[in-house]
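Tokens for ABC transporter ATP-binding protein. Go.
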Amino acid sequence: MTRAGVAKAVDGVSFDLAAGEILGLVGESGSGKSVTGFSLLGLVDPPGRIVGGSIRFQGRELVGMPPAALRALRGRHLAMVFQDPQATLNPVLTIGAQMALAVQAHERASDRAALDRAAAVLARVGIPEAARRLSAYPHEFSGGMRQRVAIATALLHGPALIVADEPTTALDVSIQAQILAKMKALAAESGTALIWISHDLATVSSLADRVLVMYAGRIVESGPVGAVLRAPLHPYTRGLLDSLPAMATPGEKLRQIPGAAPSLLALPAGCAFAPRCPRADAACAAPPPEVAQGSRRAACHHPLEAAA
């Protein structure tokens, strides 16, 4: 709810996730990626709210779950890694104190046992001399190390699902690669499912098993990450790929999707992408049908492979 009216930040999004699977959630800023992740953990702040639908986790319905029961799930069975670890770590507490509190919030453990577990998980995410670094404060870590601490905190209880909201955006490329490799290995080792939210298709291509492409609060394409990024069905996905610098010919201007994403308060009738789509015609004034090709899905009147 806004002063100008109701904005549906996420509308009709539906997917499932298997144990150990890594799902990429991509799209431009404002497409609804982060709100989708926050909704799963019940972290949508007022005046935002979930007005309908169902979120089922291991057979339990999360929508409408009492706050105390949802808090018991968060951290222990469901965890989130946020984009900026400096904003989520307490600057006046040591890393060890913060991680010990996270352990003791969900189970009885002595301070020593909690710190030992924290040190072991820090070592798993690649922090050297982990036991010694427990006495350090967040400002004594680099950006990459702070993000590793945030990931380690999410892993403390071996959750079944971790939602990672653009956690490597502010890091340099070499640190990004290290964290991506570590997350992929940890998901494989522990069977933890991972939702990786990003606007970076290159990152998702190297990490995810499947990808969901979002636009204006809806999923416009989904499928195995390799197939979707090699030959997308939806013109929006094609536009995202064409916008990558790696796809450009040296010396030529970068291609971009014309126009801007629509306001969620005034979405066009029919296909929301139609005003920016080079393939749009009169048919796009109606809601797009779902096109299925094997395990792939797209919501489009004129999917690219169908035209080919």
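Strands lie at 22-26, 56-57, 60-61, 78-81, 161-165, 193-198, 210-215, 218-224, 290-293, 296-299.
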